[in-house]
Amino acid sequence: MPQYTWVEDNQSRSATIHRLGRRSQNTYKKSWKIFGTSEDRLVHDDVNITLWTSYLYWEYPGQPLNKLQAESYTLDYLGDEAWQLTVNYVSRGADDDLKPDPLRRSRSFDTSGGTTHITQQPQLDAGTSIRTYGTERRYPESGVDAAPDQEGAIGVDGQNVNGVDIIVPALQWTETYDVPAQYVSTQYIKVLSALTGTVNNAAFRGFAAGEVLFQGATGSQDWDQEKGNSPWSLSYKFVASANADGVTIPLVTVGTMGGILKKGHEYLWVRYEDDVANSTLVKRPRHVYVNQVYAETDFALLGVGVS
User: Fold this and answer.
1) What are phi and psi of 240, to 5 degrees?
2) For residue 112, is it left (φ>0), alpha (ψ between -120 and 50) or beta?
3) Does the chain have fewer CB atoms within 10 Å around its N or its C terminus?
4) SS3 state at 105
5) Any bridge partners for residue 70, and if so which?
6) With contact defined as beta carbons under 8 Å apart, do 219 and 231 qualify?
7) Residue 34 to residues 28, 47, 51, 70, 199: CA-CA distances in angstroms?
8) Closest residue by Cα to residue 18 from 160, 131, 178
9) Which residues face 228 on adjacent strands?
10) Residue 185's closest CA among 103, 100, 104, 107?
11) Are 216 and 196 in contact (CB under 8 A)?
């Protein structure tokens, strides 16, 4: 209880609440007249003790987790043992703590592509695609028989198919969300870790199953002694690669082998055998293998929606 008489002003309660926005500072003011002393030290002691015991927080109506804390006050002497007290409350964000909707969203993308090592010239079956490939061009030494057909094998030195590194289409994007602190639990962080390095088992962000790889998430949160926890800032990283399934892009052809189905993040490799063409030892593609190297998971578990 106050040592002196506190009378709240008629126009004492003023609030500015930011419903959305990362760490937007919400403010609330409350003011009183204090009567009973002209001593500075005594009235300041009374103010600090009373604030600490009775008025340290202002609670957003109906949301007990959204509290604004008394951060500062002004105290003016009015004369005749009367004082004017104004207390300033502040907080960081005050969206409904009962709803886990993000406080802020942002997205960025990068189509720089990725690098991969290939041993076979890319070739697609007939179908709808904005990408077209030419055929192998061969130039023999003057006076020598025609250069042998390598059937698309790249960098053949007579012993090995050395291949080449190329840039391939890869849409990378990052989604960033600010969410209330209470919704980022240790269990949720474990789920994010378990989903890292997996591909979607159903449509996600407009991409077919198998086309999106979840590369992982990063999170950060601020805390200080006075204001407590800020919202979590979570960033989710994805990369998309089209399925060669005859729908998104045509099926794959390697040498004389066509109709090869390869999902976006599966690994295709070729087994070669020795052959002789025009009295030259060549490497012929004889078998094609497609391996699923990433597990499929339900991206709904990320908690960021799928559409």
Assistant:
1) -115, 140
2) alpha
3) C
4) strand
5) 89
6) no
7) 20, 9, 13, 18, 65
8) 178
9) 224
10) 100
11) yes
Give me 16's structure tokens: 């500015």
Quote the tokens at residue 301.
Answer: 């578990």
The DSSP bridge pattern shows strands 295-297 and 198-200 to be: parallel
Q: Specify whether the CB–CB gap between 282 and 152 falls below 8 A.
A: no
Residue 49 phi, psi (nearest 5):
-65, -40
Q: Would you write out the chain's pLDDT as a tens digit for each of its 307 residues?
A: 789 999 999 989 999 877 654 456 788 999 999 999 999 999 999 999 999 999 998 887 777 767 888 999 999 999 999 999 999 998 754 444 555 566 678 889 888 877 888 888 877 655 555 666 667 787 777 776 778 888 888 888 878 888 888 888 789 999 999 888 778 899 999 999 999 999 999 999 999 999 999 999 999 988 766 556 678 899 999 999 999 998 888 888 888 888 999 999 999 998 888 888 877 788 888 899 999 999 999 999 999 999 9
Name the nearest CA neighbour of 283 among 160, 147, 135: 160
In whole angstroms, what is the distance from residue 246 CA to residue 187 CA?
Answer: 40
Q: What one-letter code names the amino acid at 163?
A: G
